Amino acid sequence: MQKNNRSLQTTPQQEGVITGKITRVGLRTTLVTMLVLLLGAVSMKVNANEKNATKEKKTRVIVICAHPDDAELTTGGTTLLLTRLGYKIKYVSLTNGNKGHHQGTKNEIAYRRYKETREVATRLNCEYEVLNNEDGELEATLKNRMEVIRLIREWKADIVITHPSYDYHPDHRNASLLVQDAAFLVTVPKILPEVPALEKNPLFLYTRGRYTNRQKPSPDIVVDITPVVREKAHLIDAHASQIYEWLPWINRSTEVIPETQEGRLEYVLNEYVLKRGEIKAEDLPVVEKWYGSSTKTVTTIEAFEICEFGRKVTDQDIRALFQLFPEQQ
Q1: From CA 89, how far away is CA 79, in angstroms rounded?
Q2: 127: which strand partners?
Q3: In sequence order, what E strands does 145-209 have?
Q4: Cβ count within 10 A of residue 18
Q5: Are strands 159-162 and 60-65 parallel, antiparallel or unpaired?
Q6: Which of 69, 201, 233, 316 fits 268 for a cystine, CB–CB 3.0-4.6 Å?
């Protein structure tokens, strides 16, 4: 008897059907595999972009002071160091400084001082904004508070620096109060809703003033500006109307101002950088805290006090924000 082999054989037509099914299944599998790989690649690219964006995000610092030259005198060394690290820096003067001279009209003084801020912006590679409030008449009004909130929000600040509240000049004290009052409110969306609120409260700092805070004599943070003392002197030198004319006159100084540029820079270095940056007894433990074994190389500093109304930070947070301090041993 002849065996029926039909069950073991297929016709060319049947073979085509079976082959087609296998081909379609294989194609579908290949497409799914390619799609998974493609989505994985896209996901990896997105994650890489997010990491790069985080890495490339530059810390943004705004220094809000009362007069043109205040920011340079109190934070010039720190901001020089930060710009070298790629930080974005903005100086703000809440007044136009139009009474900071003994000669000329108010408009002439304001214009001259504005031009000096343009020179500083070039030398530091920062932004510099001067508000048109009268020198000696700055008040902690609601209008001015809204302006300070706007400035901080528009700059998307991570760090805000201003005068201490106990400084010698009423404009300094009111500038400090305005910045204090803006702290926290910069995160409240219904306050000044036309400018988007910050998602995170910045770190707010006070500079060192002329007087010591008796309740807290030691600063919270010190920055070693020893490597940039001459560069800081060069920044301050841009304010010729103040450093070489007005301040010697109002302080009744008998010291002769040098006529040469080299002599003037040495004068600024000694009078406005080295003397003001001397390490006091109450500073030394703070220098040791931040610089450890490198303390012996620190000779000139800028000191800061943390404002209690801003972001609550740990020492680790401060190191991350400033990135100026040596690694902890």
Answers
A1: 7
A2: 90
A3: 159-162, 203-207
A4: 10
A5: parallel
A6: 233
pLDDT at residue 217 in the model: 86
Domain boundaries, the chain: 60-322
The token pair that represents 101 in the structure block? 């001279």
Shortest CA distance to 280 belongs to which of 296, 294, 301?
301
- Of the options 3.40.250.10, 3.40.50.80, 1.10.3720.10, 3.40.50.10320, the CATH number for the domain spanning 60-322: 3.40.50.10320
Exposure string of 60-70, with b = 16+ CB inside 10 Å and e = fewer, is bbbbbbbbbbb
Cα–Cα distance for residue pair 287/290, rounded to 1 Å: 5
* pLDDT, tens digit, 9 for 90 and up, residues 150-191: 999 999 999 999 999 999 999 999 999 999 999 999 999 999
Backbone angles phi and psi of 157, in degrees to 5 = -70, 140
Closest CA to 299 of 317, 325, 273: 273
State both tokens at 276: 């003001």
